[in-house]
Amino acid sequence: MGMALSGLASGFDWKSIVDQLIEVSRAPQDRMVREKSALASKSSAINDLKGLVSTFKSSLTTMVSDDALFKKSATFKDSTTNWTASATKDTPAGEYKFNLLTTATTSKLTGAGDLVADINTSTPISDISVGRTLTAGYFTVNGEKITIATTDSLDDIFGKILGQTGVVASYSGDQIHLSSGAPISLGASNDTSNFLQSMRLSGSGVPSGGFYEVSTSAPGLSAPRLNVALNSSNLSGLTPVTAGVEETLIINGESISYQSTDTIQDVLNRINSSAAGVTAIYDLAAGQFSLTNKITGNVGVTVSDTGSGTLGAAMGLVGQAASLGADATFSINGGGTLSSRSNILDETAHGIVGLTATANSVGEQTLTVAGDYTAAKESLNDFISKYNAVQNAIEKYTKITVSGDKVSSAILAGNRELASLSRSLRTALYTAGTGISGGVQRLSDLGINFSGIEPTISLTNSTSLETKLATAADDIAEYFSTAGTGLIDRLDTILSGYVSETGLASGGFKAQLDSITSQNKSLDKQIEDVERRLASQRSLLESSFIAMERAQSNFQQQSSYLAKTFNNSK
């Protein structure tokens, strides 16, 4: 019937009449839609309030803590010093004059040298170990480019140098020696091989007996191969590690395991990441392994092999004595000399509770420990801000405004539960807690007061607050933190009744939101019922008017037939 054309027979536009009748009948449904819109606004407002109250409640657990109330600062007299310091709430206030006499240093165990066999000069340079990977290309001697391949041996390269330049090259004592009757020029900016750098050859030569000689800089060239399997590492003192067998190296009592498939670099990395507390490296320039303590102070370093393993000895570390570090020495306020394993002079070194000074240079530095009320003030300001946010929101959503003869109400006007919440919060602030006996009984004792007739509060007397923080921190802590009757617990009890998700406390936000949800469901059902009735009513009206149109059409056809019949009979 939706496509029906009205009034074809009668000339009467009954369809618009049906639309108007249905629209009039839709009035209850429109009212329900408006009610749903109002409920949505109420739900939004309650959720906003719930969020603000929850935030306020959560902040109570950290508000005006002992750490904030009794916080101490440590400040140096010399603002440009490179020292740093800190104090805890338990550090005695006062002036402390530190004098660092000597700094703490680290212990270091340096391994023995001569760890690998000399180079075989007939072996391709790709297979010799000098601590670096030799590259093919050319290098320059006396202006001549000496081109080499990684398949060349040292003997091959020595022959090329002699043949192209007349410079005699040889290997002995784990060093390369170059000799010539004239000064020797080595290297050019466009060299493509790193041979000269890897062999540590530079300079023009030292005159000796009519010849100029250039030799590898100390120590020798041979070096362990750090990135190949241990049995191929070129450590001459290493007993081959049996495949599949785990050996153990002990450093400072910590076990460092290794197998035949590991490399020296694997072992170094394992040492550095272990609990041994040392940094292990291979010093290419010195040709030695070393272990340096990660902490300063007079603390030893020990290394031993276990079982059939010999890696520690092969690295030159077993049997070597560490060069012990030194403890820091210092005094305070002209007293006797104290010592500290590190340059961090803390309670364990000087006995002053909670005081730590990091001394980055030798000499005297004076610091003052005093109360730091910044955190307490920030905490109280945060409390004021969150409390006011709740009260302002309640005012916003419940206020009734009168302007002349016009009265307008906010979306939650008349909500008794919110009025009760606002009143309970105000009462908690200006009522002393039971059993609180100190000099702080109310917020007003801290210079925090209500803003006239408004429910909000503000800091109106900062001097009073600072005085109480400096002289009555214990009283402030008692006022806020006393179990059950302190302000924090009293406020928490009030707020819990509104934000609890598990309880069904009358007036709680959950109960109010559940009520709105229930009302919405009821309205949805009523709107659906009205819509069904309107659809049925429209169908009935349209059927009636269509029947009328058909009757009208039949009447018109009969009238036309009768008129035609009478005309033909004359």
Blueprint of the fold:
Blueprint: H1 14-25, H2 27-60, H3 66-69, E1 72-76, E2 84-86, E3 94-102, E4 106-110, E5 137-141, E6 144-148, H4 154-165, E7 168-172, E8 175-180, H5 195-198, E9 206-208, E10 211-215, E11 247-251, E12 254-258, H6 264-273, E13 278-283, E14 288-296, E15 303-305, H7 311-314, E16 328-332, E17 338-340, E18 344-345, H8 347-350, E19 356-358, E20 363-371, H9 374-398, E21 400-403, E22 406-409, H10 416-430, E23 448-450, E24 457-459, H11 462-471, H12 473-481, H13 487-499, H14 509-569
Antiparallel strand pairs: 1-20, 2-19, 3-16, 3-20, 4-14, 5-6, 7-8, 8-10, 9-10, 11-12, 11-15, 13-14, 16-17, 18-19, 21-22, 23-24
Helix pairs in contact: 1-14, 2-9, 2-13, 2-14, 10-13, 11-12
In short:
The protein has 570 residues and is of the alpha+beta class. It has helices at residues 14-25, 27-60, 66-69, 154-165, 195-198, 264-273, 311-314, 347-350, 374-398, 416-430, 462-471, 473-481, 487-499, 509-569; strands spanning 72-76, 84-86, 94-102, 106-110, 137-141, 144-148, 168-172, 175-180, 206-208, 211-215, 247-251, 254-258, 278-283, 288-296, 303-305, 328-332, 338-340, 344-345, 356-358, 363-371, 400-403, 406-409, 448-450, 457-459.
What features would you describe in this structure?
- The chain is of the alpha+beta class and 570 residues long.
- It folds into three domains: 1-70 and 373-570, f41 fragment of flagellin, N-terminal domain; 72-104 and 327-372, no CATH class; 130-215, 2-Layer Sandwich (Alpha-Beta Plaits).
- It has 14 helices and 24 strands.
- It has helices at 14-25, 27-60, 66-69, 154-165, 195-198, 264-273, 311-314, 347-350, 374-398, 416-430, 462-471, 473-481, 487-499, 509-569; strands spanning 72-76, 84-86, 94-102, 106-110, 137-141, 144-148, 168-172, 175-180, 206-208, 211-215, 247-251, 254-258, 278-283, 288-296, 303-305, 328-332, 338-340, 344-345, 356-358, 363-371, 400-403, 406-409, 448-450, 457-459.
- The protein has a five-stranded antiparallel sheet with strand order 1-20-3-16-17. A four-stranded antiparallel sheet has the order 7-8-10-9.
- Strand 16 and strand 17 (338-340) form a beta hairpin.
- Helix 2 (27-60) runs antiparallel to helix 9, helix 2 packs antiparallel against helix 13 and helix 11 (462-471) packs across helix 12.
- The chain is flat and about 155 Å long.
- It starts with 13 loop residues before the first helix and ends with a helix.
- Mean pLDDT is 89; it is low at 1-9.
